[in-house]
Target: Alpha/beta fold hydrolase
Amino acid sequence: MILQFKNIPVYYEDDGQGDAIVLLHGFLENSTMWKDLKPVLSRSHRVICIDMLGHGQTDCIGYSHSMSDMADAVLAVLNHLKLKTYTLIGHSMGGYVALALAEKNPKAVLGLCLMNSTYHADDDERKALRKRANQMIQSNFESMVRMSVANLFSSESRTTHKKEIEKVIDQALKTSPQGYIAAQEGMILREDKFEFYKSLKTRKLIIIGMKDPVIEGERILLETEHTNIECEKLSLGHMSYIENKSELSYILNHFIEFIDL
Model:
C-alpha cells in the first residue's frame, strides 16, 4: 500500500489483527527483510512493515534523511492507520528510527526492541567511514554495496549463508545512490539516546550479535547491567534475522507475549 507523504510515496504493508507491531528495517534493507518473521507475528498481532525514506518503494525527500525525518514518515503511516499504541522492533538503522519515533510519541510505545542496533551515536571514526563511503559510492556503487552487506555477517555466515547473502545484496542494490547517501548523512547526525532509552517507560530489549562488527555489544551489556533494559545475546553477526533465525524468532515472540500480559 502507498501513502503520500511530503509529495513522495511511502510504501507499507499491513497484515493480521490484534495489537500492532511495527517492523523497521535497516540501512540498505526494505520491508522484504521481514518475510520470514512477519507470518509468525501476524498470527496473533497486526504487523506493519514500512519502507523508510530512500529505501524499497519509498522515495527520497532530500539528500540527508535524519532519523527524525524517517520517524516522521513512519508516524504518518501509523497515524493514517489510526494506531493509538504499538510495539516497535527496529533492525540496525531501524532501531535508530524507532528511538526517534519514541521521542515524538512516547506514550504510544508499548515496547521498543533494538535488534542488532544501539542507542549510541556514531563516534568520529564511524562518521569518517560513512563520509568516505558516500564519496566512494558515487563512482563504484555496486561494489561498495556488496562489500557493505557482506561485512555485516560473521565470517562463518559468509560461508554457510551464501545464497541468503546474495538475496540481501540484490535487495540492497535496489536502493538508489541518493537513498544511500541520505541515510548515511542522517546516521552521522544522530545523538546518543542512552539516557532517553533508559527513562522510556516501556518494555525494552536489545538483541546483540556477539560477533557483530558494527555494534559494541560488550559495551552495551556493561552499560545496561543495572538498568531496566533487557539484553539477549546471539552467537553470530549483525544480521540475526538470517544468521540466528530460529533463536531470534523465539526471543521476539517472548518479548511480545510479555508485553501482551
User: Anything to note?
Assistant: Residues 120 and 189 are 12 Å apart (CA to CA). The chain is about 45% helix and 20% strand. The mean pLDDT is 97.
